[in-house]
Amino acid sequence: MTALIETRGMHVKRGNVTVLRNVDFAIHAGEIVTIVGPNGSGKSSLMKALIGAVTPFQGQVTRKKGLRLGYVPQSLSVDPSMPMTVSRFLDLPRRSPREARQAALADAGASEIADRQLTDLSGGQFQRAMLARALLNKPEILLLDEPTTGLDQPGQAAFYKRIEEVRDNLGCAVLMVSHDLHVVMSASDRVLCVNGHICCEGRPEVVAQAEEYRALFGSGTGGALALYRHQHNHSHDDGASCDHDHQETA
Ligand SMILES: Nc1ncnc2c1ncn2[C@@H]1O[C@H](COP(=O)(O)OP(=O)(O)OP(=O)(O)O)[C@@H](O)[C@H]1O
Which processes are annotated in GO (biological process) (predicted)? Predict the structure, then answer.
């Protein structure tokens, strides 16, 4: 299967400092991949190099031709003195048909906020408005940089659940940076542990046990995987049924 984005031997500098070394990475259609790592370890730099906002000084990044990207940045400051509805926000920088805006808000689980002022939204609603904007062009890959910053734990869990639904409904790949290890690990197909390079990578269960991961986050997070696990019995449209044994967050 062709990768949506792939890097080979990628080195990235910010200023004069090499912040990422020798990154080999690929993400494919429909995957949910989470990047974890300490502060300053190069997670955002990796994301920026993948979307082309930062150019690697060595190695290659290959994006599928015509790849449709949706990007939710780490932060966006809104001038509280500037009145703007969510609908208007979705029209920046490019106007979209009303139906497209409504569909994106529905996909983001936020249909009811279309006419609300941006500055009146709760943190969770604002994140959904950002998500809706990233979904407007029906992305093949959605990239989210710490999308739940400022949300409480139920808010985080609800947001990641919505991301899984978006992936299921739209079939897009999802690549996100997160510090919410306990919540995000089991929502991911694959976890990438970054600290200036890729320390370890694999299924969440495997990464949580890896020495490199434990050296960075301690063994306490080994049990973190259990936290988000919930009972997840349902049928899909294609008739297949899911029966994972998850436990709810304490
Ligand atoms: N524009 C820049 N110019 C110079 N150095 C930068 C720039 N952006 C980031 N850096 C440096 O690059 C390193 C990696 O930063 P990056 O933002 O990628 O880390 P991160 O893992 O996303 O961190 P955090 O978890 O704190 O968001 C840090 O040392 C940071 O200070």
Answer: response to zinc ion; zinc ion transport
Pocket test for ligand 1, best of 41, 177, 195, 198 (most atoms within 8 A of CB): 41
ipTM for the predicted complex: 0.96
- Whether 101 is in the pocket of ligand 1, judged by its Cβ within 6 Å, is no
User: Are 113 and 85 spatial neighbours (Cβ–Cβ below 8 Å)?
Assistant: no
Nearest CA to ligand 1 atom 9: 14
Query: Which two tokens mark 12?
Result: 């990235």
Give, for all 250 residues of the chain, the pLDDT tens digit. 789 999 999 999 999 999 999 999 999 999 999 999 888 999 999 999 999 999 999 999 999 999 999 998 877 777 767 789 999 999 887 888 899 999 999 999 999 999 999 888 888 888 899 999 999 989 999 999 988 887 888 888 888 888 999 999 999 999 999 877 766 776 789 999 999 999 989 888 888 788 888 888 776 544 444 433 333 343 434 444 434 333 333 2
Give the C-alpha separation, 164 to 32, whole Å: 8
From ligand 1's centre to the CA of 215, what distance in Å? 21
The whole model's pTM is what?
0.83
Establish whether residue 75 lines the binding site of ligand 1, counting it when its CB lies within 6 angstroms of any ligand atom: no
